[in-house]
Amino acid sequence: MLDIKLIRADPELVRAGCAKKRIKCDVDRILELDDEFRGLAPQIDELRASQKLAGKAIAKASPEERAKLLEEQKQLKTGLKELEERMGAVQAELKPLLLTVPNLPAAEVPDGLDDSDNVELRKWGTPRLFDFEPLDHVDLGERQGWMNTEVAARLGGSRNYITLGELARLEHAVLRFAMDLMIERGFDPAFVPVLVRREPLEGTGYFPGGIDQIYMTDERDELYLVGTAEVPLTSIHAGEILSEEQLPVQLVAQSSCFRREAGTYGKDTRGLYRVHQFQKVEQVVIDVADEARSLEHHAAILKNAEDLLQAFELPYRVVNVCGGDLGAPQVQKFDVETWMPSREGYGETHSASRFHDFQARRLSIRYRDKEGKVHYCHTLNNTVAASSRLLIALMENHQLPDGRVAVPSALRPHMGGLEVIGKPIREVTAAEAAEVEA
RNA sequence: GGAGAGGUGGCAGAGUGGCCGAAUGCGCUAGAUUGCUAAUCUGGUGAUCCCUCACGGGAUCCGGGGGUUCGAAUCCCCCCCUCUCCGCCA
Fold first, then answer.
1. Distance from residue A365 (CA) to nucleotide B37 (C1'), in Å?
2. Where do the domains of chain A lie, and which CATH numbers do they carry?
3. Exposed site from A69, A135, A218, A435, fewest CB < 10 Å?
4. Helices of type H across A120-164
5. Which of A311, A376, A377, A388 is nearest to A348 (CA)?
6. A79 touches strand B (CB under 7 A)
7. Which nucleotide, over all strands, has the C1' atom closest to the CA of A58?
8. With 80 as the cut, is the pLDDT of residue A371 above it?
9. In this predicted complex, what is the ipTM?
């Protein structure tokens, strides 16, 4: 949510932000309603003030006077009620409209329509040149007996997966590595609900815009399955006024993530890339309202993700996400895309966002500074490890000619020391065998 | 699922129709004071919105929403949450 004062003071800035994000938003109507609000508020305040004074007079008045005063107040009350009803209508329209106003993109956000306009900032590692025909993760996984998409679909519909045996172990190892890394870097580990009420989703900015992507339970409970632990983690301090000494709050949690993937029919249907449920470790930062501090955090949470990929020996690139590909709540977002041989390209595995005070306003997360003044916090978050997509990269990039998969040394401690997983499932030439030895 | 008790400021906790945005204690903070640490005394100390260049003024907020009333933390209705006991359960 943007500060209404900002919209009032500089509507052009807001319109420009909407345009850059390709988001439609009725700024004019908001200004109209705000204008009406500001006309009504002082009138109502004044009437209530006189009502209060009259009330005190009535309490002290003699019986004769009292009857007269009561009559006067009854008259006043009708007028007040009318104004209050109009005020109610104005607010009922204004509030949902304000929730649709997107956050303003930073100047550094490139202009553009969709992810093809994202700007590459840097690359790390070199995509491997295979001197054999590599298998994609689905072939590899099913032939090793590690994955069964057919059974997964029978149990939970399409876009589901089951990992088994060593691959399941690898999935655990990835998640565990991610948690350990973040704890080492000073983040507090947490377990959080994945079934939440409307407020955390509205507060983090997923509602109303992203409602189609969210699973919800029926009217008996009216609960929603989160698409990321960001939602409950960021909402932990909702409604609080933190003291400045408590900041920054740095949290990390692993959770199941649920996504409806509405409108993606026929897209990425094969394998683990786009699934309805996966495991993810997410990092969240809540800190003071300071642009420079926010930028530092943004760089740091991005580095956490990059360090993980480097430890996994996976080539990746970082892109500066353009306006049209940016979500409504973000000020700026860097995506990390990891090399996936079967896609012959980089696929998004991480998304590092900063929000300014957008989420904090909606969630009412505030802090008291050293002078005792209250401000809204800044929030940020980034993926640490989305297990399903990392499994694609790990299997495909580290596969051996015989169909086994090498385990990066960073993951071996969580794999009982295994250096390679799987059994030979393909014929190899003598030259290839020699290469595997090396 | 059944029965009961509750939800008040940063925290604890009083307040059952007007004198209550709210006692008191703790915390925080400024000052005074005493070799230091500490203690003691005195004062200050909620948020949001509106008007104002400002000084200042006004309104709203006692879990949320609605109602009764000239007037609601206080009375009524609905909802949410927490705790205790019983039942069930990983």
1. 37
2. 4-99 (1.10.287.40), 115-434 (3.30.930.10)
3. A218
4. 137-144, 149-156
5. A388
6. no
7. B70
8. no
9. 0.82
